[in-house]
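Exercise 7. Predict the joint structure of the components listed below.
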Amino acid sequence: KAGVTQTPRYLIKTRGQQVTLSCSPISGHRSVSWYQQTPGQGLQFLFEYFSETQRNKGNFPGRFSGRQFSNSRSEMNVSTLELGDSALYLCASSLRPQGSFIYGYTFGSGTRLTVV
Amino acid sequence: QKEVEQNSGPLSVPEGAIASLNCTYSDRVSQSFFWYRQYSGKSPELIMSIYSNGDKEDGRFTAQLNKASQYVSLLIRDSQPSDSATYLCAVNMIVETSGSRLTFGEGTQLTVNP
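Solution:
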């Protein structure tokens, strides 16, 4: 059974550019969440999608956005990149949203974004 | 106050010892709790989940939950060098308007010395 797949694995972008990251969840998983991980802040919640609807959003500026497609694949977009956006972006999938409380997340390998 | 706090590391134990990792959380109505292990350069991997007060054992790992004290812990018995990693405590916290979300502590780095 394939795990959570994130592409690309590594990205280098210039300040002011925008970037799109992709995530394919485990087959049958309908909930996808995104996290940003940095050495100073740890794992910070970005947003959660279920059935193409955003259910939760973390405390990030509007430059961070996402969407989910009918096949549960998800993308996140960061516009007008800043140096501080350099981080590991992790996607995680679950059978259901966390509101059902008993399911943990399975994480993908992440996309390492470097903004120069 | 942070929503999820873990004991500050790094933690170093000799091989074969018991490693004890602690976590406290602020949201009294949180319902589910998870421990993730993250090796350097890798993504987090779920190793334990616990929902009820008491102990839950899985091999060398034991998770303990005390909701009254808002405290979760992870014990690793017979620690091995391969257990050297960062351990993340995660709490399913209620979000007033939109359900819940998984909130992570900053992690405790564990080193098991041969």
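Discussion. The radius of gyration of chain A is 13 Å.
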